[in-house]
């Protein structure tokens, strides 16, 4: 058994932390109609009675509402963070007061504590896992394979986690079913596009007190997240430059009117750099050498490996905290390159970061919640491996949201349904 203590045993002023965490959760809850609708169902039906859910996610106010929803639906839940810097300790403390929840998440932990906390979560012997980045699934497969037989399945929140799971599945190494929540329209088209775009840009602006207007903003990676960042930076009067490695994505960015060029060229003209590739070594020493004085370097990809901070540190003659959440690296020619949030996902790891807007996380976590319900109801029907979320579940979440927003929409007539399903109607 892990000796790692829950957050309530780690904070000094636990009462004050709990109150503040609860206040943040209540605010988010007011703006989460999907989770609130599911709450009515889950409190009534108790679908998760007898389930133990192990979670590794960004522990902040929106996630906390998902966690409480699952606990109020009868589950015993243990949770920790999925990034050392994204936890809000007060929210973690508020969660830990729930009789069905133990929270081990704490901001600013080192590598060893980070993995000790994951071990502590695994101690509940989960029947279901909910991950953001796949660290929980990896720890169970590597160190606790004896638990796999009793695990019904899991759900994965983000692109990088789904990539890792698919790689594991390709190697026949994934031994229980996991839903790729990230890949659903209700998650990807809103959370990745709008959420990452809005929250990353807002966090950079608030952290630095600088404007985008008239600046060259370099977006590395034109996937779902990059598309949103580029659009919203452009809406704030930035000149957007996109770097890509995939020709169709590069062409799409070009046709949207952005400048597309290799990072080696973008490095010379960029004022703000934001990496969202999910890949490693996107901005490296050869790029740092060419950058202008005063540039801002930020990452919104899942891991802190997109900007090569080891190389930057080696090149710097001086390094100091220029502002809260901004580390300046001074080169021998006097140029200062400013790194935000230690190169970790800026919209969650910056000191002032709040993560995505509440509304988009309501959608993502609505999909998570119905996936957990699906695992309990029909988990036996899924083989080990990565699974797409059944479309009717994603539609269910969209319908709840549209109803909450008072938005009505059309339905197919019988004739239209027949026509759409037929190959016999031609010219
Ligand atoms: P995606 O797969 O849709 O897009 C990534 C893009 O980066 C692809 O077009 C790929 O060709 C490109 N790329 C790969 N290597 C590159 C390189 N060296 N240079 C330039 N472009 C490169 O993935 P998505 O959904 O946009 O996610 C990107 C990352 O953001 C992932 O790590 C994901 O987990 C993370 N994420 C972060 C969020 C946040 O809150 N900060 C929210 C959602 C996702």
TrEMBL record:
Domain of life: Archaea
Keyword Hydrolase: yes
Span of domain S-adenosyl-L-homocysteine hydrolase NAD binding: 192-353
Record's GO cellular component terms: cytosol
Gene3D superfamilies from the UniProt entry: Adenosylhomocysteinase-like, NAD(P)-binding Rossmann-like Domain
Positions that bind NAD(+): 158-160, 192, 221-228, 244, 279, 300-302, 347, 356
EC number(s) recorded for this UniProt protein: 3.13.2.1
Reactions that this protein is recorded to catalyse: S-adenosyl-L-homocysteine + H2O = L-homocysteine + adenosine
Residues annotated as binding substrate: 132, 157, 187, 191
Annotated Pfam families: AdoHcyase (PF05221), AdoHcyase_NAD (PF00670)
Cofactor(s) needed: NAD(+)
An example Gene Ontology molecular-function term: adenosylhomocysteinase activity
Listed GO biological process terms: L-homocysteine biosynthetic process; one-carbon metabolic process; S-adenosylmethionine cycle
Compartments reported by the entry: Cytoplasm
NCBIfam families: ahcY, PRK05476.2-3
Protein's name according to its UniProt entry: Adenosylhomocysteinase
Gene designation per UniProt: ahcY
């Amino acid at each position: 058994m892990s000796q790692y203590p829950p957050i309530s045993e780690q904070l000094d002023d636990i009462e004050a932390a709990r109150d503040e965490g609860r206040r943040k959760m209540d605010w988010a809850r007011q703006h989460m109609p999907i989770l609130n609708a599911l709450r009515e169902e889950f409190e009534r039906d108790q679908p998760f009675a007898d389930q133990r859910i192990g979670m590794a996610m960004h522990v902040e106010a929106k996630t906390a509402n998902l966690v409480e929803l699952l606990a109020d639906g009868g589950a015993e839940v243990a949770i920790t963070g999925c990034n050392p810097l994204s936890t809000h300790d007060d929210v973690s403390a508020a969660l830990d007061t729930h009789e069905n929840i133990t929270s081990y998440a704490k901001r600013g932990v080192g590598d060893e504590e980070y993995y000790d906390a994951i071990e502590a979560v695994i101690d509940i012997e989960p029947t279901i896992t909910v991950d953001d980045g796949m660290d929980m699934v990896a720890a169970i497969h590597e160190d606790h394979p004896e638990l796999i037989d009793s695990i019904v399945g899991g759900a994965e929140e983000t692109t990088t986690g789904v990539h890792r799971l698919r790689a594991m599945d390709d190697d026949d190494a994934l031994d229980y079913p996991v839903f790729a929540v990230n890949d659903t329209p209700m998650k990807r088209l809103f959370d990745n596009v709008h959420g990452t775009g809005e929250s990353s840009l807002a966090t950079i602006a608030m952290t630095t007190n600088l404007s985008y207007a008239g600046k060259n903003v370099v977006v590395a990676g034109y996937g779902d997240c990059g598309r949103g960042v580029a659009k919203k930076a452009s809406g704030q009067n930035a000149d957007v430059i996109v770097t890509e490695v995939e020709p169709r994505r590069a062409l799409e960015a070009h046709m949207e009117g952005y400048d597309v060029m290799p990072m080696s060229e973008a490095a010379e003209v960029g004022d703000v750099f934001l990496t969202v590739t999910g890949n490693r070594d996107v901005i490296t020493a050869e790029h740092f050498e060419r950058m202008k004085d005063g540039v801002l370097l930020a990452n919104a990809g899942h891991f802190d490996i997109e900007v090569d901070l080891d190389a930057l540190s080696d090149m710097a003659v001086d390094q100091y905290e220029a502002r809260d959440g901004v580390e300046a690296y001074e080169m021998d020619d006097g140029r200062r390159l400013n790194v935000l949030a230690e190169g970790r996902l800026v919209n969650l790891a910056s000191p002032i970061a709040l993560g995505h807007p509440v509304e988009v996380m309501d959608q993502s976590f609505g999909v998570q919640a119905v996936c957990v319900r699906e695992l309990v109801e029909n988990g036996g029907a899924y083989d080990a491996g990565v699974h797409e979320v059944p479309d009717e579940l994603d539609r269910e979440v969209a319908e709840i949201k549209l109803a909450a927003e008072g938005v009505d929409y059309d339905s197919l007539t019988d004739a239209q349904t027949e026509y759409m399903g037929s190959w016999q109607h031609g010219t």
